[in-house]
Amino acid sequence: MEQLTPDPRNREIFDPVEGDDFEALVESIRTNGIINPISITATGLIIAGEQRYRAARTLGLETVPVIVHYDLDDDDPKVTLLRVDENIRRRSLKISETARAVKAWHDATAKPVGTNRYTNGSSSTVDELEMPEAIASMSPSTRTIYTKLAALIEPLAFMLDTKQIGTQVAYQLAQLSKENQEALAAATSEEELAELTESDAKELKERLKARDAEVAELHRRLEQTAEGQQSLDIMGLALAGMREQHAKELAALEASVEDRVAERTEHFEAEADAADAARARSEQLVTTLRARMNYEAKDPVHNAIKLLVGVIASGPEAHARFTIQLGEQDGFMWPFIDMDAQQALSVANVLTEYSRLLRAALDEKGLSISGLRSLT
Question: Most CB contacts within 10 A, which of 41, 168, 256, 259?
Protein backbone atom coordinates (compact mmCIF):
# COMPACT_ATOMS: atom_id res chain seq x y z
CA MET A 1 0.00 0.00 0.00
CA GLU A 2 2.83 2.42 0.84
CA GLN A 3 4.18 2.11 -2.71
CA LEU A 4 0.94 3.28 -4.34
CA THR A 5 0.24 6.94 -5.25
CA PRO A 6 -3.17 8.39 -6.27
CA ASP A 7 -3.08 10.41 -9.50
CA PRO A 8 -4.52 13.97 -9.05
CA ARG A 9 -5.67 13.88 -12.69
CA ASN A 10 -8.18 11.20 -11.76
CA ARG A 11 -10.13 13.79 -9.72
CA GLU A 12 -10.35 16.03 -12.81
CA ILE A 13 -12.58 13.39 -14.41
CA PHE A 14 -14.21 11.36 -11.66
CA ASP A 15 -15.62 12.49 -8.33
CA PRO A 16 -14.67 10.46 -5.24
CA VAL A 17 -17.27 8.02 -3.97
CA GLU A 18 -18.79 9.38 -0.77
CA GLY A 19 -21.49 8.61 1.77
CA ASP A 20 -23.45 5.40 1.64
CA ASP A 21 -21.82 4.32 -1.64
CA PHE A 22 -18.36 4.47 -0.07
CA GLU A 23 -19.52 2.64 3.06
CA ALA A 24 -20.95 -0.08 0.84
CA LEU A 25 -17.63 -0.38 -0.99
CA VAL A 26 -15.75 -0.67 2.32
CA GLU A 27 -18.08 -3.41 3.53
CA SER A 28 -17.77 -5.28 0.22
CA ILE A 29 -13.95 -5.30 0.47
CA ARG A 30 -14.12 -6.23 4.17
CA THR A 31 -16.26 -9.22 3.24
CA ASN A 32 -14.94 -10.26 -0.14
CA GLY A 33 -11.60 -8.51 -0.46
CA ILE A 34 -10.53 -6.66 -3.59
CA ILE A 35 -11.81 -8.80 -6.44
CA ASN A 36 -10.56 -6.58 -9.30
CA PRO A 37 -6.87 -5.63 -8.92
CA ILE A 38 -5.83 -1.96 -8.92
CA SER A 39 -4.10 -0.85 -12.16
CA ILE A 40 -0.79 1.00 -11.67
CA THR A 41 2.27 2.13 -13.62
CA ALA A 42 5.78 0.92 -12.83
CA THR A 43 6.24 3.86 -10.46
CA GLY A 44 3.15 2.91 -8.41
CA LEU A 45 0.91 5.67 -9.86
CA ILE A 46 -2.69 4.49 -9.71
CA ILE A 47 -4.29 4.32 -13.17
CA ALA A 48 -7.65 2.95 -12.04
CA GLY A 49 -8.90 1.76 -8.67
CA GLU A 50 -8.45 4.84 -6.47
CA GLN A 51 -11.79 4.19 -4.65
CA ARG A 52 -10.69 0.61 -3.86
CA TYR A 53 -7.37 2.04 -2.64
CA ARG A 54 -9.22 4.48 -0.34
CA ALA A 55 -11.44 1.71 1.01
CA ALA A 56 -8.39 -0.52 1.66
CA ARG A 57 -6.70 2.30 3.61
CA THR A 58 -9.90 2.74 5.63
CA LEU A 59 -9.75 -0.95 6.51
CA GLY A 60 -6.03 -0.69 7.34
CA LEU A 61 -4.92 -3.20 4.70
CA GLU A 62 -1.17 -3.37 4.15
CA THR A 63 -1.27 -5.08 0.76
CA VAL A 64 -3.66 -5.07 -2.18
CA PRO A 65 -3.65 -6.90 -5.53
CA VAL A 66 -2.35 -4.81 -8.44
CA ILE A 67 -1.76 -5.03 -12.18
CA VAL A 68 1.47 -3.25 -13.15
CA HIS A 69 1.66 -1.73 -16.65
CA TYR A 70 5.42 -1.71 -17.09
CA ASP A 71 5.11 -0.45 -20.65
CA LEU A 72 3.45 2.83 -19.64
CA ASP A 73 5.07 6.03 -18.41
CA ASP A 74 3.08 8.13 -15.97
CA ASP A 75 2.34 10.73 -18.70
CA ASP A 76 1.48 8.26 -21.46
CA PRO A 77 -1.92 9.12 -23.07
CA LYS A 78 -2.87 5.46 -22.72
CA VAL A 79 -3.04 5.96 -18.95
CA THR A 80 -6.05 8.23 -19.50
CA LEU A 81 -7.67 5.77 -21.89
CA LEU A 82 -7.31 2.88 -19.44
CA ARG A 83 -8.65 5.02 -16.59
CA VAL A 84 -11.71 6.11 -18.60
CA ASP A 85 -12.36 2.61 -19.89
CA GLU A 86 -12.28 0.94 -16.47
CA ASN A 87 -14.29 3.63 -14.64
CA ILE A 88 -17.01 3.74 -17.30
CA ARG A 89 -17.35 -0.04 -17.24
CA ARG A 90 -17.24 -0.48 -13.44
CA ARG A 91 -18.97 2.59 -12.01
CA SER A 92 -22.36 4.18 -12.26
CA LEU A 93 -21.34 7.66 -13.35
CA LYS A 94 -23.15 10.95 -13.03
CA ILE A 95 -23.89 12.89 -16.22
CA SER A 96 -21.12 15.42 -15.50
CA GLU A 97 -18.60 12.57 -14.89
CA THR A 98 -19.63 10.90 -18.14
CA ALA A 99 -19.18 14.21 -19.93
CA ARG A 100 -15.67 14.63 -18.56
CA ALA A 101 -14.84 11.01 -19.38
CA VAL A 102 -16.01 11.46 -23.00
CA LYS A 103 -13.91 14.62 -23.34
CA ALA A 104 -10.85 12.94 -21.79
CA TRP A 105 -11.16 10.03 -24.23
CA HIS A 106 -11.64 12.45 -27.11
CA ASP A 107 -8.59 14.53 -26.12
CA ALA A 108 -6.39 11.44 -25.71
CA THR A 109 -7.26 10.17 -29.19
CA ALA A 110 -7.72 13.49 -31.00
CA LYS A 111 -4.73 13.33 -33.38
CA PRO A 112 -4.45 10.20 -35.50
CA VAL A 113 -0.95 9.47 -36.82
CA GLY A 114 -1.73 6.31 -38.76
CA THR A 115 -4.14 3.42 -38.98
CA ASN A 116 -5.33 2.51 -35.49
CA ARG A 117 -2.59 4.72 -34.00
CA TYR A 118 -3.16 7.88 -31.96
CA THR A 119 -1.08 10.51 -30.17
CA ASN A 120 -1.82 13.51 -27.99
CA GLY A 121 1.15 15.55 -29.11
CA SER A 122 3.61 13.57 -26.95
CA SER A 123 6.47 11.47 -28.22
CA SER A 124 4.64 8.24 -27.34
CA THR A 125 1.90 6.59 -29.38
CA VAL A 126 -0.83 4.23 -28.27
CA ASP A 127 -2.69 1.46 -30.00
CA GLU A 128 -6.33 2.23 -30.42
CA LEU A 129 -8.31 0.70 -27.56
CA GLU A 130 -11.80 -0.55 -28.05
CA MET A 131 -14.08 2.36 -27.21
CA PRO A 132 -16.14 1.69 -24.09
CA GLU A 133 -19.71 0.72 -24.89
CA ALA A 134 -21.10 3.73 -23.01
CA ILE A 135 -19.24 6.04 -25.39
CA ALA A 136 -19.47 3.91 -28.53
CA SER A 137 -23.25 3.76 -28.22
CA MET A 138 -23.52 7.57 -28.38
CA SER A 139 -24.22 9.30 -31.70
CA PRO A 140 -21.58 11.81 -32.88
CA SER A 141 -23.88 14.71 -31.96
CA THR A 142 -24.39 13.30 -28.46
CA ARG A 143 -20.63 12.94 -28.00
CA THR A 144 -20.28 16.57 -29.05
CA ILE A 145 -22.86 17.62 -26.47
CA TYR A 146 -21.12 15.63 -23.72
CA THR A 147 -17.77 17.06 -24.69
CA LYS A 148 -19.21 20.56 -24.24
CA LEU A 149 -20.91 19.62 -20.95
CA ALA A 150 -17.46 18.90 -19.48
CA ALA A 151 -16.93 22.69 -19.33
CA LEU A 152 -19.73 23.24 -16.80
CA ILE A 153 -18.65 24.77 -13.50
CA GLU A 154 -19.42 22.72 -10.38
CA PRO A 155 -22.71 24.42 -9.32
CA LEU A 156 -24.23 24.03 -12.79
CA ALA A 157 -22.85 20.48 -13.11
CA PHE A 158 -24.53 19.64 -9.80
CA MET A 159 -27.87 20.97 -11.11
CA LEU A 160 -27.41 18.85 -14.21
CA ASP A 161 -26.59 15.72 -12.16
CA THR A 162 -29.63 16.29 -9.92
CA LYS A 163 -31.82 16.93 -12.97
CA GLN A 164 -32.70 20.50 -11.95
CA ILE A 165 -31.74 21.57 -15.46
CA GLY A 166 -31.98 19.51 -18.61
CA THR A 167 -29.13 18.38 -20.82
CA GLN A 168 -29.98 20.85 -23.62
CA VAL A 169 -30.15 23.81 -21.23
CA ALA A 170 -26.86 22.72 -19.65
CA TYR A 171 -25.35 22.37 -23.15
CA GLN A 172 -26.18 26.03 -23.92
CA LEU A 173 -24.81 27.24 -20.58
CA ALA A 174 -21.65 25.13 -20.95
CA GLN A 175 -20.73 27.17 -24.04
CA LEU A 176 -20.38 30.29 -21.88
CA SER A 177 -16.98 31.26 -20.54
CA LYS A 178 -16.13 30.16 -17.01
CA GLU A 179 -16.41 33.79 -15.87
CA ASN A 180 -19.90 34.15 -17.35
CA GLN A 181 -21.02 30.85 -15.83
CA GLU A 182 -19.81 31.98 -12.40
CA ALA A 183 -21.52 35.36 -12.79
CA LEU A 184 -24.76 33.65 -13.85
CA ALA A 185 -24.69 31.20 -10.95
CA ALA A 186 -24.00 34.02 -8.49
CA ALA A 187 -26.76 36.32 -9.82
CA THR A 188 -29.47 33.72 -10.42
CA SER A 189 -31.16 31.42 -7.94
CA GLU A 190 -31.40 27.67 -8.55
CA GLU A 191 -35.16 28.05 -8.92
CA GLU A 192 -34.72 30.62 -11.68
CA LEU A 193 -32.12 28.49 -13.43
CA ALA A 194 -34.38 25.45 -13.17
CA GLU A 195 -37.13 27.36 -15.00
CA LEU A 196 -34.90 28.10 -18.01
CA THR A 197 -35.95 26.51 -21.26
CA GLU A 198 -33.55 25.55 -24.02
CA SER A 199 -34.68 28.65 -25.94
CA ASP A 200 -34.10 30.89 -22.90
CA ALA A 201 -30.65 29.43 -22.34
CA LYS A 202 -29.75 29.84 -26.01
CA GLU A 203 -30.89 33.48 -26.02
CA LEU A 204 -28.95 34.12 -22.82
CA LYS A 205 -25.87 32.51 -24.35
CA GLU A 206 -26.10 34.70 -27.46
CA ARG A 207 -26.52 37.87 -25.41
CA LEU A 208 -23.54 37.06 -23.21
CA LYS A 209 -21.42 36.11 -26.21
CA ALA A 210 -22.33 39.42 -27.87
CA ARG A 211 -21.39 41.24 -24.69
CA ASP A 212 -18.10 39.31 -24.55
CA ALA A 213 -17.40 40.37 -28.13
CA GLU A 214 -18.07 44.01 -27.21
CA VAL A 215 -15.83 43.71 -24.17
CA ALA A 216 -13.11 42.12 -26.30
CA GLU A 217 -13.40 44.98 -28.80
CA LEU A 218 -13.17 47.50 -25.98
CA HIS A 219 -10.10 45.73 -24.66
CA ARG A 220 -8.58 45.81 -28.14
CA ARG A 221 -9.25 49.53 -28.44
CA LEU A 222 -7.88 50.14 -24.97
CA GLU A 223 -4.74 48.25 -25.90
CA GLN A 224 -4.42 50.35 -29.04
CA THR A 225 -4.97 53.49 -26.96
CA ALA A 226 -2.38 52.30 -24.47
CA GLU A 227 0.04 51.59 -27.30
CA GLY A 228 -0.69 55.04 -28.74
CA GLN A 229 -0.18 56.62 -25.33
CA GLN A 230 3.05 54.70 -24.96
CA SER A 231 4.18 56.05 -28.34
CA LEU A 232 3.23 59.57 -27.22
CA ASP A 233 5.12 59.07 -23.98
CA ILE A 234 8.18 57.95 -25.92
CA MET A 235 7.86 60.97 -28.23
CA GLY A 236 7.44 63.21 -25.18
CA LEU A 237 10.61 61.81 -23.65
CA ALA A 238 12.42 62.33 -26.95
CA LEU A 239 11.19 65.94 -27.19
CA ALA A 240 12.16 66.54 -23.57
CA GLY A 241 15.62 65.22 -24.36
CA MET A 242 15.84 67.48 -27.41
CA ARG A 243 14.71 70.49 -25.36
CA GLU A 244 17.30 69.71 -22.71
CA GLN A 245 20.01 69.38 -25.36
CA HIS A 246 18.96 72.63 -27.01
CA ALA A 247 18.98 74.37 -23.62
CA LYS A 248 22.52 73.14 -23.00
CA GLU A 249 23.64 74.29 -26.45
CA LEU A 250 21.97 77.70 -25.96
CA ALA A 251 23.61 78.11 -22.54
CA ALA A 252 26.98 77.24 -24.04
CA LEU A 253 26.41 79.73 -26.88
CA GLU A 254 25.38 82.48 -24.46
CA ALA A 255 28.45 81.80 -22.33
CA SER A 256 30.65 81.98 -25.44
CA VAL A 257 29.03 85.25 -26.54
CA GLU A 258 29.44 86.70 -23.07
CA ASP A 259 33.10 85.71 -23.04
CA ARG A 260 33.67 87.29 -26.44
CA VAL A 261 31.81 90.47 -25.46
CA ALA A 262 33.85 90.69 -22.26
CA GLU A 263 37.04 90.13 -24.22
CA ARG A 264 36.15 92.81 -26.79
CA THR A 265 35.04 95.21 -24.06
CA GLU A 266 38.34 94.74 -22.26
CA HIS A 267 40.19 95.36 -25.55
CA PHE A 268 38.21 98.51 -26.31
CA GLU A 269 38.72 99.79 -22.77
CA ALA A 270 42.45 99.22 -23.10
CA GLU A 271 42.48 101.14 -26.42
CA ALA A 272 40.43 103.94 -24.83
CA ASP A 273 42.85 104.11 -21.92
CA ALA A 274 45.78 104.31 -24.33
CA ALA A 275 44.05 107.05 -26.33
CA ASP A 276 43.28 108.98 -23.15
CA ALA A 277 46.93 108.71 -22.12
CA ALA A 278 48.12 109.93 -25.55
CA ARG A 279 45.67 112.83 -25.43
CA ALA A 280 46.86 113.75 -21.93
CA ARG A 281 50.47 113.70 -23.08
CA SER A 282 49.67 115.93 -26.08
CA GLU A 283 47.72 118.37 -23.96
CA GLN A 284 50.56 118.49 -21.41
CA LEU A 285 53.07 119.18 -24.17
CA VAL A 286 50.98 121.96 -25.66
CA THR A 287 50.46 123.51 -22.24
CA THR A 288 54.19 123.40 -21.52
CA LEU A 289 55.13 124.93 -24.87
CA ARG A 290 52.58 127.69 -24.50
CA ALA A 291 53.81 128.51 -21.01
CA ARG A 292 57.40 128.70 -22.13
CA MET A 293 56.60 130.89 -25.12
CA ASN A 294 54.22 133.43 -23.57
CA TYR A 295 57.01 135.72 -22.50
CA GLU A 296 58.30 138.20 -25.17
CA ALA A 297 55.09 137.70 -27.07
CA LYS A 298 55.94 140.60 -29.34
CA ASP A 299 59.17 139.04 -30.49
CA PRO A 300 58.84 137.84 -34.14
CA VAL A 301 60.65 134.60 -33.36
CA HIS A 302 58.32 133.77 -30.60
CA ASN A 303 55.34 134.85 -32.69
CA ALA A 304 56.40 132.35 -35.32
CA ILE A 305 56.85 129.63 -32.76
CA LYS A 306 53.48 130.43 -31.12
CA LEU A 307 51.85 130.29 -34.53
CA LEU A 308 53.53 126.95 -35.13
CA VAL A 309 52.32 125.65 -31.75
CA GLY A 310 48.81 126.85 -32.49
CA VAL A 311 48.76 124.96 -35.77
CA ILE A 312 49.98 121.81 -34.10
CA ALA A 313 47.60 122.10 -31.13
CA SER A 314 44.57 122.67 -33.35
CA GLY A 315 44.58 119.14 -34.91
CA PRO A 316 43.23 115.84 -33.40
CA GLU A 317 45.48 113.56 -31.40
CA ALA A 318 48.33 112.26 -33.47
CA HIS A 319 49.47 108.74 -34.40
CA ALA A 320 52.75 109.40 -36.23
CA ARG A 321 55.95 110.99 -34.96
CA PHE A 322 57.02 114.11 -36.81
CA THR A 323 60.36 115.88 -36.73
CA ILE A 324 61.10 119.48 -37.83
CA GLN A 325 64.63 120.26 -38.89
CA LEU A 326 65.72 123.88 -39.52
CA GLY A 327 69.01 124.72 -41.16
CA GLU A 328 71.56 122.60 -42.87
CA GLN A 329 73.90 122.15 -39.93
CA ASP A 330 72.00 123.17 -36.82
CA GLY A 331 68.76 121.34 -36.53
CA PHE A 332 65.82 122.34 -34.39
CA MET A 333 64.38 118.96 -33.25
CA TRP A 334 60.75 118.66 -32.17
CA PRO A 335 60.48 114.98 -31.13
CA PHE A 336 57.49 115.18 -28.84
CA ILE A 337 54.62 115.78 -31.17
CA ASP A 338 52.58 112.78 -32.50
CA MET A 339 50.11 113.22 -35.33
CA ASP A 340 48.46 111.22 -38.10
CA ALA A 341 49.70 111.24 -41.70
CA GLN A 342 47.21 113.83 -42.98
CA GLN A 343 48.10 116.20 -40.15
CA ALA A 344 51.78 115.63 -40.76
CA LEU A 345 51.42 116.62 -44.41
CA SER A 346 49.47 119.77 -43.54
CA VAL A 347 51.87 120.80 -40.80
CA ALA A 348 54.86 120.12 -43.04
CA ASN A 349 53.59 122.63 -45.56
CA VAL A 350 52.98 125.21 -42.83
CA LEU A 351 56.39 124.63 -41.28
CA THR A 352 58.14 125.08 -44.60
CA GLU A 353 56.75 128.61 -44.84
CA TYR A 354 57.30 129.44 -41.20
CA SER A 355 60.82 128.09 -41.21
CA ARG A 356 61.58 130.73 -43.80
CA LEU A 357 60.04 133.43 -41.66
CA LEU A 358 61.88 132.09 -38.63
CA ARG A 359 65.21 132.30 -40.36
CA ALA A 360 64.48 135.83 -41.50
CA ALA A 361 63.62 136.81 -37.94
CA LEU A 362 66.76 135.19 -36.63
CA ASP A 363 68.90 136.99 -39.17
CA GLU A 364 67.27 140.29 -38.22
CA LYS A 365 68.04 139.69 -34.56
CA GLY A 366 71.51 138.42 -35.30
CA LEU A 367 70.69 135.09 -33.64
CA SER A 368 71.54 131.55 -34.53
CA ILE A 369 69.72 128.30 -33.98
CA SER A 370 71.67 127.79 -30.75
CA GLY A 371 70.47 131.18 -29.59
CA LEU A 372 66.89 130.15 -30.31
CA ARG A 373 67.37 127.04 -28.17
CA SER A 374 68.46 129.22 -25.24
CA LEU A 375 65.26 131.23 -25.57
CA THR A 376 63.01 128.25 -25.59
Answer: 41
What's the whole-model pTM score? 0.53
Decide if 322 is inside a domain.
yes
Q: Which domain holds residue 316?
A: 294-375
Which of 150, 165, 194 finishes a domain? 150
CA distances 216 to 173, 202, 204, 212, 226, Å, are: 20, 21, 18, 6, 15
Contacts of 43 (CB under 8 A, 6+ apart): 5, 74
Q: Bridge-partner residues for 5, per DSSP?
A: 45
Q: What is the CATH number of the domain that holds 107?
A: 3.90.1530.30
Query: For residue 38, what are the contacts with CB-CB under 8 A and spacing of at least 6?
Result: 4, 46, 48, 49, 52, 53, 64, 65, 66, 67
Which of 365, 337, 366 lies closest to 351, judged by CA?
Answer: 337
Inside any domain, residue 91: yes
Pairwise CA distance, residues 70 & 45, whole Å: 11
Q: What is the pLDDT of residue 166?
A: 92
The residue out of 150, 182, 211 marking a domain boundary is: 150
Picking from 61, 60, 58, 43, the residue whose alpha carbon sits closest to that of residue 6 is 43
d(CA 278, CA 369): 30
CA–CA distance, 78 with 130 (Å, rounded to integer):
12
Please give the tally of structural domains in the chain.
Answer: 2
**What is the spatial distance between Cα 190 and Cα 23, in angstroms, rounded to a whole number?**
30
